[in-house]
Each structure stands twice: as C-alpha cells, then as structure tokens.
Amino acid sequence: MFRTDDKASRGGFSLVEILITIAILGILVVIAASNFGGMNEKYQVESETKQFYADLMDARGRAMQRSRVHFVKIAADGLGYKTYDDTMDAAEATPDGDRVLQPDADTLVANATVRHTITWNPGGVSNFSFNFNRNGIASVTGFLRFDSTRVRPDYDCITVEATRIKMGQFNGTNDCIEK
Predict the structure, then answer these.
(1) Longest dimension (CA), the chain
(2) Is the pTM of this model over 0.85?
(3) How far apart are CA 170 and CA 91, in angstroms?
(4) Which of 53, 111, 127, 152 can pair with 76 through a Cys bridge, CB separation 3.0 to 4.6 Å?
C-alpha cells in the first residue's frame, strides 16, 4: 500500500533549512562587502597617486616647454596639492618670473583635493612646496606618500629626484620601492 505521508514523497524545504540558507547567504554578503570596501580604498589611493604623478610630470614638462619655474605646493593638512606657473613679472620683464611662489600672483595650473593624507619624506611633513626650474630639474629629493593604513595598494608613493619622477609602493620602513 502506498502512503502519502512517506518522507520520500514529501516536497519542499523545512523552515530550519531555509533559515540556515539565509544565514549562510548573509555571512557571504558581509564578507563580500568588507572585501569590496578594502578594494575600493586601495583603488582610491592608487588613483590619487597616479593623478598626482601625472600633475608632477605635467608641471615638469611645462617648466621645460615654457622655460619657466613651476611650483608644487602640498596643503597644510596634507589633503590636497596645487601646481603653479611662475607668472612673468612685468616690472622685471624676466622670462621665468621672480622664481618665488606667490599664490595670488602666479597662475594656478592644477588644484586637487585628496582623501588620503600626503606627506613628504624624509621628515613626514605636509605644508611643503618645491619647484621645477626652467630645465625641469626638481629643487628637492625625497618621496611623497599617500597614507593608507587599512590597505596596501600597489602604488602609494612618488619618488622625486632632480631629474626623474617615479611611482612606487611604500615598504613601511620609510622607503618608496619604485616600480
């Protein structure tokens, strides 16, 4: 005789099985969301580093092309930077201006706000400025770093030397490993 209440003929899921499945899916969603947040920050740091690198290369190129000093100034709070073209001083009639950064008189070329603090090493300071002379030679040697404590991006620092600029990864011991 065939019984309809036999376990083999019963279809569907029990409430316990559905709750366990929902709990597992919830855990997977939380893990995925936390990984996405870390990846998002990593890409933000890399994006900020690459944009700053491009602006530095632009300032250096403009300095050589226009035979005029270009300045780079990091904000006091480290959350931004500006690049300036040393505007020609009509009184002195010099082709490269007065070679002194005057934010009100010099031409603003790039103005960027960043989410990760920029520090200059050695020294780890913000509110720092330097320039590229009319031959594109930097007035300082060291590296700029974007602070990121939660993630380790592939690019988070920029080495500045007299005649070259390269991106790299901060190794955690006060050095930028160029890539």
Answers:
(1) 112
(2) no
(3) 45
(4) 127
